[in-house]
Structures are given as C-alpha cells and as structure tokens.
Amino acid sequence: MAFRDSSRNIFLEGPTLHAECMTMDRQWKPSKLHLNQILGNANGEFAWLGSDFDKGAEDIRLEGTVLHARLPEAFGKLRDAQPDAEGRCNVVTRGMVFDEAERQRNEIQDAREIEARRSEAEYLLSHRDAFEYSPLPTPTSIRLLKIEPSCGVQDMVHCSLTVVDLADGPVYDALSYTWGNPFPTLESQLESHYQRNTAICCNGRRILVKQNLYDALRRLRQPDITEERNKPYNKTPLIRAAEQGNFGRVYSLLSQGADVTSRDAFGETALHYAAGRGDIESVKVLVVAGSDINALDFKGRKPVDCARMRQRGLSAQVIQFLNERVQPERPHSRTNTCLRNRVLSNGYIWIDAICINQSDDAEKAMQVGIMGHIYKRAQSVVIWLGKERQNVQDAAASELLRAVWLLELATKNRKLEDDTMNVLLHDPDGYLSPALPHTLRNVATDWLRTFEQDKIEDWLNGVPFYRRRWFERAWIIQEVLMADEVTVVCGQFVLPWDIFMLMSCVVETIRNTLKKGGLPWTNSFGFSLAISRGETLLTRINKEDEIPAVTLERKRRAFRREGRLPSMSALSVGRNSSATDPRDHVFAVLSFSLPMQHTTSKGKEIVHPNYVNSPKQLFVTVGKCLMEAHGPSILSLTGDVKNSRVGGLPSWIPDLSTPMYFQPLGMHTSPSTETSTSGDIGTRYNAAGNSLQGQSTHISPNDCLVLKGIKWDIVMETAQPGLNRVGNAASGLIRWASLLNNINGSVPAKLDALWRTFIGDEALGSHPARGLSKEFTGWLKFISIVELSRYSPELSKKFTKATMPANHSRQDYLVVLRGIGYSLESLGTPFSSKEQEFFQKLYDGHSDWASWYCNFLSSAETFGNIIRNKDTSRRLFRTKKNFLGTGPERTKVGDLIFIIPGTSVPYILRSTLPRAVRRSVPLNFNNKIFSSHQLIGEAYVHGIMHGEAVKGIEDKLETLNII
C-alpha cells in the first residue's frame, strides 16, 4: 500500500516528519521521523533511505504527500528534487566521480539507500506467493525475462517471464555472469554477502536471486531519464556542463544516457560549447558518445568554427582533433559505445538462474543441452563482471576503466579490423608494432598516460580487474564463443567487446614490456620494478601467464576459424575453469567439443548433460571415452588429487575437478589456438621406444584398468616438492646436492643432468635444450640470495614483502650462508670470493646491495623465465639405478617406475598391498608379488626418455591392474 493511502495527519516540523501510519492489523500508530533517517512506511514504521538530509538540503517543505527540497549533487551543486512520500526521489543518479573522497561518500550513501530498499522489498514481497514454473512445451522452448524500467537504482526490481520457442527466432540478449561473489577475495563477510538471497517481483510473485544477479538486474534495467531544461535558453544539463567546462559532469551525464543531439535556444549542441571553450577532453568524450561534428547552429556554425572564433584553452588541439575526424555517413548509434544510453539491445534477456527452473533436474539438463544455441541466437551477450568496487576503498576497476572510452578513438565505427586484432593478439610488442595504424598507437599511449607510472608497474604482478571470478568460470568459454555481439559491463562502465579486447591487449603488451625491464615511453628502470621482476621469477604459475581476456579471444577466434575442438582440448579448457557443480567442468564444454563417446554392450554411449548421474559416474564415463580414443597416454592426465571434490575415483581416471595448468609431458592436451585444433596428442618423448608401441587395454566391471607394462626401477630418495625454491634455511638446496652426490659422473655432468631434469630437457621450443649451464648457475645463485634475504633485516626490509620473517640472528644468517655455500660448491657452482665477501657484510647492510641485486637478477632471468612455465610443484627424486628424475608432488620412496607400451613417458605406480605386507617384502623391483597398483602420475627420468631403458628387456612385460 502506498504511503499516501496508509498515512494521515502528515506534517513537517523542522527536519522531523510526523504522521499517523497504519499497522498490519489496520490500527493507526503515531510516528515521527527525523529526515536523516527516512523515507517509507513498513508496518507503521518509517524506513531509512538516506543520510545527513538536514545538513545538505535546503528549502525543505511538505505539500500533501510530496516532500520538496534542494539536494546536493555529486559535484557539489544544489538542484531541485521532489522525493514523494512513497520514497521515490528524482535526484539524478550519480555517474563517475573523480574526487576520491567524494566517491567514497557517495558509495556509502548509495549502499545505505540500496540496502534499505532491498530490506523493504524483502518485507513487502514476503507476503507474495513464490513464483511457480510451468513445464516448457517443446524441447526448443525457453523463457525470456523482461526487466521493467526504474526511477532509480534503489527501486524494487520488477520483471516478467514469457515463454518463446527458439524455432520462432525471438529477439533477446543473454547474460553471462558469476552466480556468487564476483571478486577474487575469499573474505568470509564478502562471501556471505554474495551468497544471500534477495527477493524480486516476477509476474507479480516472489523469486529469490543471489546478490550478484540482483546487482546485475538493477544495473541492466532501463532508467527513466528526464532532462530538465534551463529556461529561458532551453539548455539541458549536458549543455550547461559543457558550457561551464565541467568534464566530470559531462562524462557523468553521458554515462547516464544524456542526449548528445539536444540543442538550446541558439541551436548549439554540447559539442559547440565544449569546442568553444577549448575543452579538449569534453570534445573527445562527446565525439565518442556520437555528437555530430558537422551539426550547424542557427548561425550556420559547426563546432570547429566555435573553436576557431573563441580561441580559448586548448583550441588548437580541438581544431586539429575535429578536422582529423571523419564523420560517418549516419550519426553514431549509442548502442555500441562505452557511453551507450542503454545496456540491453532490446527488452528481453535470457538469464539461466531465472529462466531455468533450477529445482527441475530434467528441465535443467534439457536447457543445458541447448545452451550453446541459446547464446548463439542471442542478439548480444552481456557479460556482468560485478560492481566496479568490492568496498569503498577498492578503486582498482575504476582506475583501469574510467578513461577507457579514449580507446574508441582508435576504432572505425567502434570496430577493430581483423588484421589489427590479429597483430595485437600475436605480436609480443602488441600496439607498439609498426604493423598497426599510427592512430591506434597514439590513442593507446594517450590512454596509458592517464595512469601514474607506479600503477602501471604494478601490472607486472597482475591486474586485479582480470582476477575477477568471471574469468575463471567454466561456462564463459561457451557463452563468449557462441556470441556474435558481446558487451562487457562492470558497475557503471560499459565496454563493447572490441574496446575491451583492445584494452586487454594493451595491458598485456605493457606487462610483456615490464618483464623486459622498462616502459614503452621511458628508458627508466626503477629498482622497485626490478624487485617485482625478481618476484615473478620465483612465483609458481598456477595459470597461463597471460591476461585471461587475451587467452579467451584466442580461443574465440580459433573456434570461429576451425569449429568444434577435439574432446581432449575441450576438456582441458573446462578443467582449468571453476564450476560450482563438478559435472559442469564437462557439461560446459559439450557445445564446442566434438562428441565424447565410448563403446558399451548396448552400443555407443555419448556424453550428454545429465544431472541425475553423480560426478564420479560422469568422470568415469569420460575417462572411458578418452581411453578408447587415445589409449593409455591419458594416464598423463592424472593430476593433484589432494584438492579433489570427487571422491572414490579410480586412480587412472582424470579428476576433471582439479586444474592441470601445465601441459602434461606425455601428451598435448591443448593444440595451438592460433593455428590448429587438429587434436594431435604426440609429444617429444618416446620412453617406450619403437619396439613397444600400441597395446590393448581392458576395463573391468569395477573400473580397474588392465594393461601391460615393464617394471623398470624404484624411487630411492626424494627432495622436497618445488623446483624453484631453495627452501627454509636452504634445506631444499642441501637436498638437491645430496641427491646429486649419489649420481655417477663428473661434477659438470651432474650439474648438466640436474638442470635438464628440472625443465624436462626442453626450453624455448628446443629438445634437447641448448646449453644452459651458465644461465642455471645464475638462477641458482639468485634464488639463494632470496633465501639469504630472509636472514638479513637490512635487506629483508627493502627487498622482501612484510610477510617474510626478518627476526633471525646473525648466527642464523651465517649458518644459512655456510649451508648455501657448501651446497653450491657440491653442485659445482660456488660463490666467488667477491660474492662471499659481499654476503659476509650483508647482515650489517651493504651500501651497494641494490646494484648487486640487479646484477644477480639479470643473470637469473633466462633460466627463471623457462622454469616458471614448467610445473614447479614436481618432486626431484633419485632411482635405485642412480638416475635423476621428477615426479608428481606426492611421489615418495618405494614408488615404482613403469614403462607402458603405447605411451611416451614413464609412469610412477604405487603398490596397494597393506603396509605390514610391504614391510615383509624386500624392496626389489623384480618381486612379482606387486599385483595391483595406484597411479601416481607421469615421470621424467633423465637418460631414458627415448627408449634407452627398454632395450633388451622388451620381453619383461607384466600385467598391471591399476585401481
């Protein structure tokens, strides 16, 4: 019930509103409310919608049920506002705020208002019936959502669902978003916030949605925009802002959809006034928003004529800019720009959480099965990345996106040519390449100059915007691959896909440039940048070391060029993504994968979406499909099981719920997305030799894999996991030296075997790797310096992060120094006498430590960049035959090394005999009592990777039961 219908005796006394309000039992209850705590009526009580009303408002008066006041806007000016007593207020929605303090104040106030409205909606809708889904009439039927317009972002969300058939060619958009928290942080309070349900009104009934979708619905609905003209000259707010030279206000109004074609009483547009003032920033943003550069006022003047006449500010730049612009034949549409006046291209949108009955597994499976068609037939796919800030202190997205509209000046009709995008994607120097248009390079550089240099240097260690969870979702590949048009929305910011990709490619180019030691427009190499580069050398890469948006665009273009991916490649994409339901790691890739099938007693079984079968049943089925298609090489797909979300899987079945970010040694899972999707799974190794090729495999009814293999050796000694860490107090380095002492050969030969084992004897596309002993030595000394810095308060304070300990004594430091020196000497890479002298003085602080650090960093980079792209979680081991190798992190002493026909690398298996029985059996690799085994994973053993181990023992094959 409206406030006006449920209240009486309303009067205003100072900043306090008095009324008698009706309660739920229809009794009148006197109420009063200070205007700092208003406005609304919920069960006889006023509801809160604002803050500090009396401090900022002027001319407060009450007329009937309408409260009049003059309220401050974001840029400090007062405007007339008439919030009625139902809580609606026509105050202009805030746009971009460039003052940080002002932004934070507005953010707090908006959050309070939105939360109050959400709570009020929860109460009002709690008395409504829940929405009930009717069955869809045909297999190609879908529901579409229409979001009703609003008067403000705080209003309750009203929408309606309608059923259509894809066969009838309906016009709609589709949403791609994160169901839960869109931010990368795991902060419990934030997680709880995004897990809560919020009520919206759909077809007059109540539907519950998660918080991130609720934010998206509020952002996507069309605002009710009214432009109040200023008499007597008929100037719109946009024209007045341009006339005053207020760029922030101009941008704010454009981002809210202000009309750039509006004219005042003199026939002048906002562009005429901005040009006349010589306001180059406002001129550029108005042109990007679609202002007509050839528009004539009533005196026949174009905007450039106003700039010539008045010669103010940066008029010369304005004149040059407008003269260089080529006006399109038709005025720009506001539907494909960063400053568009609406997000949705039409009134209807498909959103899985609402348009699919989530409680009906049969319907969900059917809709998932046609989801690729749903996204393909959508007029546009809208990507919702969440609000631009996770709290009032967070400004990461705003800092990156607030000037991104500048990049539109490098496009033609807001599109990038395919050749240009190909250069950006494939050229390591990106937009700096001479193959790109001169205009694009200038525009990109102008955009980068809007950032402070230290902000750009931070990109080396990652860009927070690209760490949002949307980029990790399993479903985004399908949603983007299938879309013809894509729009990215992050809070108030809207980016057409081409602009989003241009921004991403430029950021990736800068990151590559930083890795090489500088910035493209300076020769500076700050020491802070050197520290960051050093840290990246020691960081274990868990994901592709590339902006995820760039990787996504590579996949999108490859799909459009080549079509469906081989199942192996598609599954590797899904495996390295995140999904709430483990089964979605498979279901999310079915629309762009070739069919996954295997033979059963009833014929071919093809994998389809099916939420009835458990994740374990699904993964076993997929494993059988892969075994039938590729043979025992799929044993290389076994990854880290400690983070598994699916229990009880046979050890040989790939656990598709755990990521595998590195290319396995024994097969290629991800063919180049730039050249081919042919599905070739061969590798550079051939441990089984030419005499042991293919073999037949058998899968028992209890899913045990039966095949042939040769038991070659036993793991006798291991080092701690991690191939790029010296370890606490140099323990890892000491262990490496210990393993190497038991290996036959000269010191240089041992060192050569060590670094080749670390990188699988492959580097920079070459196998065997070219000589890298010197580079390895430089890297080894550098990571030793990092460990020493933990024991030097002086260096630790300047070099390491605050989390690194710096409370060790001088004695601790010297003990570690001696341990490192001894181990390096055992490895044949001792510190020089000059280096020893330096480190002896380091604890007390050395005057030239910075240059020393840079020198060591320079010598470490080559090998450091190679090993960062390997799986550094692997464990170094020595076999009984004194061979050096690496295996999965869970490799341990007593594990067996097998060579299996039909594969290209050795595999580590573990006996499943009880421990008591194993202790009574001699540790002998020829003992036949080992009959069933658990697969640990693939191995690299230096010296046997090309058939050397099987020569003369081809007849030693035995039957293996891998459970």
Strands of the largest sheet, in order across it? 13-12-10-9-14-11-15-16-17
Average pLDDT level: 82
Distance between the termini: 66 Å
Main pleated-sheet profile: 9 strands, mixed
Runs in which pLDDT lies below 50 for 5 or more consecutive residues are 37-51, 72-97, 672-681, 917-930
Question: Nearest-angstrom radius of gyration?
Answer: 33 Å
Which word captures the global form?
Answer: globular
Structural classification: alpha+beta
Helix content: 25-40%
Number of helices in the DSSP assignment: 33
Please specify the SSE layout and strand pairing.
Blueprint: H1 3-6, E1 7-13, E2 16-22, E3 28-34, E4 41-42, E5 45-46, H2 53-56, E6 58-63, E7 66-72, E8 78-81, H3 100-125, E9 141-147, E10 158-165, E11 173-176, H4 188-195, E12 197-202, E13 205-210, H5 211-220, H6 237-244, H7 247-255, H8 270-277, H9 280-288, H10 303-310, H11 315-324, E14 348-350, H12 352-355, H13 361-369, H14 371-377, E15 380-384, H15 396-401, H16 418-426, H17 438-448, H18 453-457, H19 476-481, E16 486-490, E17 493-496, H20 497-516, H21 527-537, H22 548-562, H23 567-575, H24 584-587, E18 597-600, E19 603-606, H25 615-630, E20 698-699, E21 705-718, H26 731-741, H27 747-758, H28 773-789, H29 793-799, H30 810-826, H31 833-842, H32 849-868, E22 875-879, E23 884-887, E24 896-899, E25 907-911, H33 915-920, E26 932-938, E27 940-941, E28 958-962
Parallel strand pairs: 10-12, 11-14, 11-15, 15-16, 26-28
Antiparallel strand pairs: 1-2, 2-3, 4-5, 6-7, 7-8, 9-10, 9-14, 12-13, 16-17, 18-19, 20-21, 21-22, 21-24, 21-28, 22-23, 23-27, 24-25, 25-26
